[in-house]
Each structure stands twice: as C-alpha cells, then as structure tokens.
Amino acid sequence: MPAVFLGVRHHSPACARLVERTIAQLRPNHVLVEGPAEMNGRLDELLLGHELPVAVFSHYRDADRSATSWAPLCDYSPEWVALRAGRAAGAEVRFIDLPAWHPAFADRTNRYADAEARYAEATERLCRHFAVDSTDALWDRLFEVEPEDGLAERLDAYFSLVRGDAEADGRDRVREAYMAAWVRSALAVSGDRPVLVVTGGFHQPALRALVGDAPGAGGPPAGGPGAGGPGAPADGADAPAAGAGEGAPGADGWPEVPVPPAGASAGSFLVPYSFRQLDSFSGYQSGMPSPGYYQRMWESGPEAAADGLLRVVVERLRARGYAVSTADLIAARSLSQGLTALRGHPRPARIDVLDGLAGALITDDLDGPLPWTSRSALAAGTHPAVVEMVAACSGDRTGRLHPATPAPPLVHDVAAQLARLRLDGPAETVYSLDLMDPEDLERSRVLHRLRLLAVPGLTRTAGPEHGVDPVFAERWEPAPTAGREAALVEAGAYGATLADAAVRALTERAHGIGAEADALAGALFDAVLCGADALSEPLLSELADRVGGLRTPGPLGEVLATALGLWRHDRVYGVARGPLLGAVIDGAAVRLLRLLEGARGAAGVDGPRLRAVAALRDAVLHAPGPLSVERETVTGMALRVGRDRAAPLDLRGAAFGLYRALGSGTPEDPGEAVRTVTAGGADAVGDWLAGLFAVAREEVTGSAADGPASLIAVLDDFLGALPDQDFLSGLPALRQAFAYFPPLERERIAARLLERRGLHGSSRSLLRTTADPLLLVRAAALERDAARLLTRYGLGVAP
Fold it and tell me: From the CB of residue 672, how many other CB atoms can be counted at a distance below 10 Å?
C-alpha cells in the first residue's frame, strides 16, 4: 500500500487528535515520525512513562563548533501521539530525521522550529482573507475550533499552499531527502498494510513528491532526488554536504544513521521540560503558543479550555490584590461569547477569550498592541492584567522523568561529590565556608563549578568579589531548585566529570568573549574560583588569546592589574605564580605595548588608560618571569611615547614616568620634558603631570626631587611666573593631577617648597585651610552630586 502522509503543526491538539484517529483507522505497519533517528534504539526509554513535557536534548562539540538542541514533546504533540498510539497499535515506530548535530540543523536550537517565516506571504494573505491579525489566530480559526470532519483535507490544502509560496533552503532539502529514504525503506517491507508518515506540514508536500505514490517503491520516483523535483537537494552552495552513505540502506535495511566525525563528541539525553519553556511568550519559536491553554483544550475541548482560562485569570489577579468583581467575570464571559459569534467561530478560540478578558478588565490606555497579536516575549511595563492572562495561558507544569531514565555520567559524578563533601544536606541548609580551610576550599570549588554550569540549588550571598578582595569566607544559601535535573543533564554535554565540564564551559565562554574586559575579567576570576589545578591548556590559551583581542588600554589594564594581583599575592586559591595568570599577564602586557604606542586622543585625562600604564609598570618590575618581552623593549616604547608630541599629554606624562620608574639608561631631564608642554598653558601641564603622578609619584617626593633641576623646582618656577588669570584657568587640571598624592606626600612637597624659599616652620600648616567647614561640606556634597550625574550619563569621572 502507498504511504499516507500527515502534515502537522508541532504541538497542535487538532493535529494530535487527527494522528490518533488515523492510526486507529489505518492500523499501519509502520509509523514514521519527524525526529532524531539516533534515538530509534532508545524508544523504550522515551516511552517509559514520563510526566510530560520532556525533551530530547542533543549536544555536539568539535574543534570548530559546538551546538545544543532540544526536541520537546508534550501530551498534545502530534509526534508524541504518533509514537504512543503507533506502539499501542502494534506498528513499528521510527524516527526518520537527521541527528541534531548534523549541519542541516546548524544554528537551530529547536528541532521543531517552524518554517513560518519562510511562507509569511501566503499566511499574510490568509490572515487578511479571514480578518485575523496573527498566524496563531489564523490556525485556531481554520483548525483548532472547527469540526474534525475534513480536517486532513484542510491541512493538505493549507500546507500545499504555504509550501508552494516558500523556497526551501538546502538544509531542508537534505533533511527531506533523508526522510524520504526512510519512507521508501518502510514501503519496501510494509506488505499490505500502510505506512503512516507524520512530519511538520512544511515538509509534507516535498516528501510526497519525493516518494511518489507507488506502493513498495524501492528507489526515487520521477521528481525525486537527482531529478530536480520538489524537495530535491539543490546544487547551490546553501545545501550542506551529506555524509557518505547518508540515506543509503544499512545492514538492517533501514537508512544508516550518520555518526559524528572523528574527534567530535555528540550525544542525546532526555531532560524534563516545562510549559514556560514551550511558550512563545517566553521566546520559544515553534508550534503553538500558550501550552497551558492547549493542554486544557487537549484534555477537555475548547469550551472547557475557555471557561478554565476565564476562571484562572480572575483567580490570579485576585491573589495579587487586583480588584476583580463577579460582574467583571460575567462581562468577560459575555464579551468572549460575543466575539466568538461575531467572528463566526463554532467554538471559542483562544483569541476570543483573551480579547474578552482584555475588554472587560483593562480600562487604561495601552502603550502597544496586545501581545497575542504577535509572537514575542512580554515587554517591560506590560499591563498587570495582560501579564496574568499570558501566565494563565502558559501554565506552570514541569515535566518529570521516569526514575529508570538513563542519565549522563556527570549527574552521577555530581551526586558523588556532593555526598563526599557533605553538600547534600536538607534543602534549607546554609553553608558557611572558610576558604583558608582545605576542605572548605574544595567545597567552594564544587559549588562554583555548579554555578558556572547554571545548575540551580545554592546561591553565593557573600565572598570575595575579585581577585585581590581580602575576604576569606563564603556563604551559600538555598535557592529555588526548579529545573535542576534538566540543568544537570544538559551540563553533561560539557564533560563526564564536574571538573572537566567546568573547564570546557569556561573555555567555550572565553571563546565567545569579544572586546568586553568585564566579561573577560569575570571569566578569569571564575577560572580561579573553580580551581586552577584542574584547568586545561585550551582554557589557558583561550584566555590569553581573548586578552590579546582587547582594543582599548583602560579595560586591558584592569584585567592585567587583577591577574597581576592574584599572581603576586594569592594566599587562598593556589594560583600565585601559576601558568594561568602568567599567560594572561604576558598577553595583556604585549597587547598594551601595541595599544599605547601610537595612541591618539583629545585633551584631558584618561584615568583608566593611566592605570593601565601603572599596571604595565608593575608587571615589568614584579612579574618579569611570565613576560615574553624584555624590559628594554618596554622602556624603549616609553621613551618614544614620552617624546611624541602627537600623543595625548596625559599619556606622554605617564610614559615619562614609566621610563623613569624602570630606571633604564640616562634619566630624562624633567625640566626639558615640562618645557615641551608649557606652550599649552597650565591646563596642558596639569594633564601631563596627572599622567606622571599616576605612574611615578616619587619624581616629586623621592630623592629625584632634590636639586635645582628637580621637578619641584621646575614646576615652582613655571607656576610662579604665570599670570593670575592663567593660573586660575589651569587650577582644576593641576588640582586633578596632585589628587594622586596622599596627605603625607603632599606634606613632603610643601616642606621642599619651604626649603626653596629659605623658610622654617611646619609644612603641615600649608595644607590646612581657614575656610568655613560648612562651606567645605557643601562643596564636597556638590562634587558628589556632579560625579553621580556624570556617571548616570556615561561621561565618567576622573579619579
């Protein structure tokens, strides 16, 4: 007998009922379902008796790419009904689609993602014809609330229309050719009983054309693969290459299931899923929205689903303190019934109930269209009644796997580690850890690895925030555990043990970091928290490469300073003088040398860039071991930048200070250096001094400050000769520069100024003011307000 093709919409109750009726009527020999063919040997596991929704989670990793994918199933998924009802009817049930790791699924995280975007033109015409404003409303109008008689014919006409207007890409054609091979193999052995093929409606017309109607067809019919007919693989570059033998019969007569390439890791496991994950209002892009509503429709029909939604929305609003009267409920019910009749629906559709609720309960003006008129997540500021309507439609069901379901090795490794370290106590347990204690440090590392893998259960509420934070204790408190089982299974894609999984997740995260220093510093500190002794060479090289990709000195300097502080002073995590931080320090220093030389910019002081120069100074002075550049290379760069009149003045001052601090060769004359910038006035001198003081304050306060050619003498002579107006104009820049000095060093500068004038007395008195203290307090408050205002608008504040 020929194959019977049922095109369905994923997660559609109407399609699920049609599949169930068709199997009962046909009693097919084979039921072939769109789904991952690599799961065919594990169908008994899939049908163990789980509480739906569940999903097949698939993962793939090789040296070039990594991918994860989900194929969710709920009670009313046509694919699930085909598996369950087909097995109950005695049919041989098979998945017939390519594995999720295959290039045909590249960039697709959901196997059942609809092709609706590709046939938007046809659905838009239908929406206009039936006077509806969304594809979901159109689907309800045509299929979910209409009588079941003639449903199969309507579905055929609908999918033929939309597929006829859509151009399938090469990836779809490869998948369809592979699925057609399964259908032909089933026809070859089906005998006098039919073969039922259940796939997404987008693929149904192409599969029917590929297989043809000849019973028992053993090869491609006219118009099949190679003949250029509908669904045939394209010759263009958009079609991914099929692997050798894909679609060719294997030893058992069925097409061979492709295996991952050598060196790649791939696998599939069942995970619990939730209605929230299945809802388009949470970002899901496949099949029907509002899973809670359609679950009620599947179980009890459209009328009961409509009544249940009205009741649940009112209950949710009342529970949150919103006044909803019995009269409001009656009005909502009446509006819904009126809209159902006005729109010509034989039974209430989801859109009728939602519009009726909105009309009865919302009296405010809304900022935009109601969310069920499109497919998108709720925006911030959505009306509370709308939020509750969407939540009631979504439902809060979470699936549960059967206890006998196999789990990846990571699940067992985590359970063993938590038990060994006594971290598997009651759910309300709070863990206070002393990081100086070896066992508590190991417990901390395990908890941080779970945090890194996004496994819920415990949240750190206290502990060190960065690499040089002098905090040696952590506190972990209970957090909601919803989704923990699924998160552990999904984390198993990273490795068989917790340490391996954490390293691989960190490496992948580091690979995805662009030029964001904060993200890079966070990844670096997470690597330290998770235990540097378990880190692998790929992670070390990845972090070093990411450091080399930062494009601005300021953020790069922050990463260098953090890594350098840990490398020099860590007493907790065991990373002092370690290879991880050494690689980061070297990469950051080399990159900074390239960015600083040739830097250009507007006048002013760039505080983050100056701190980067100071971090480079400390790396050369205190961590020469990890550096791949010689000290002379750094001083040469500093000398060139310090003399470069096109460079920013603050950077020139910092370079002058860097050259002096590294003490290489003949010291530069501070007097000559200052005179090169005095043409710009006191403002220019202030910017130059800010750079110098950020890197080498001892130029003023140390032994180099003595003698007639000292910087103090040069500045004293220059500032003393300035007219009052010029001095007042440059005072803010000068004040900013001298703010780098703490009070004790300011006192030393004041003492040297007294000595130059041959005066005796306490220099401390020069630092005291006779101004009104209340005036000073008001001035300080004004400065704080100005700083907050600048920060709010992203203008920044110099230190």
Answer: 10
CA distances from 684 to 649, 722, 751 (A): 7, 13, 26
What is the distance between the alpha carbons of residues 526 and 535, in angstroms, rounded to a whole number? 11
* DSSP symbol at 91: P
Taking only the tens place, the pLDDT of each residue in 737-776 is: 888 888 888 888 888 888 888 887 777 776 677 778 888 8
What three-state secondary structure class fits 426?
coil
Q: How many CB atoms lie within 10 A of CB 325?
A: 10
Contact 104, 171 (CB under 8 A): yes
Compute the C-alpha angle 319/325/326, nearest 5°: 115
DSSP letter, residue 707: S
Distance CA 710, CA 667 (A): 12
Q: Residue 238 in 3-state DSSP? A: coil
Is the Cβ–Cβ distance between 349 and 138 less than 8 Å? no
E strand or H helix that includes residue 35: strand 30-36
Distance CA 140, CA 521 (A): 50
Neighbour order of strands in the sheet with 431-434: 431-434, 473-478, 458-462
- Contact between residue 23 and residue 198 where contact means Cβ atoms under 8 Å apart: no
Integer angstrom CA distances of residue 707 from 83, 490, 704: 92, 70, 8
Neighbours of 263 (CB within 10 A): 8
Residue with token string 């069901």: 397
Number of separate helices (H) and strands (E) present in the chain = 32, 10
CA 492 to chain centre: 18
Nearest to 115 by CA among 57, 69, 168, 180: 168
On whether the CB atoms of residues 34 and 14 are closer than 8 A, the answer is no
User: 562 to each of 464, 469, 553, 680, how far by Cα in Å?
Assistant: 13, 10, 14, 36
* CB 207 within 8 Å of CB 231: yes
Nearest to residue 657, comparing CAs of 629, 690, 627?
A: 690
Report the largest interatomic distance among the alpha carbons of the chain, rounded to a whole angstrom: 118
Give residue 535's pLDDT.
55
Q: Cα(616)–Cα(283) distance, rounded to whole angstroms?
A: 45
Report the C-alpha gap between 232 and 197 in whole angstroms: 18
Encode pLDDT of 306-321 as tens digits.
Answer: 998 888 888 888 888 8
Q: Tally Cβ neighbours within 10 Å of residue 181.
A: 24
3-state SS string for 55-89: EEEEEEECCCCEEEEEEEECCCCHHHHHHHHHHHC
| Residue 3 CA: distances (Å) to CA of 212, 721, 730 | 9, 100, 88
Q: What is the reported pTM?
A: 0.71
Element (H, E) at 268: strand 265-272
**Over 593-630, what HEC string results?**
HHHHCCCCCCCCCCHHHHHHHHHHHHHHHHCCCCCCCC
Tens digits of per-residue pLDDT, 481-535? Answer: 888 888 999 999 888 899 989 988 888 887 777 666 667 777 888 888 888 655 5
Radius of gyration of the chain measured on its C-alpha atoms: 35
Place of tokens 């019919």: 221
The structure tokens listed for 325 are 């009267």
| DSSP-assigned letters across all residues of 548-611 | TT--SHHHHHHHHHHHHHHHHH-SSSS-TT-HHHHHHHHHHHHHHHHHHTT----SS--HHHHH
Can you tell me the distance from the alpha carbon of 502 to that of 538, in angstroms, rounded to the nearest whole number? Answer: 13
Angle at 8 between CA 6 and CA 11, to 5 degrees: 140
CA dihedral of 355, 358, 364, 370, whole degrees rounded to 10: -50
Q: Contact at 8 Å (CB) between 599 and 651?
A: yes
Which of 45, 225, 4, 33 is CA-nearest to residue 112? 33
Axis-axis angle for helices 631-643, 649-662 (nearest 10): 140
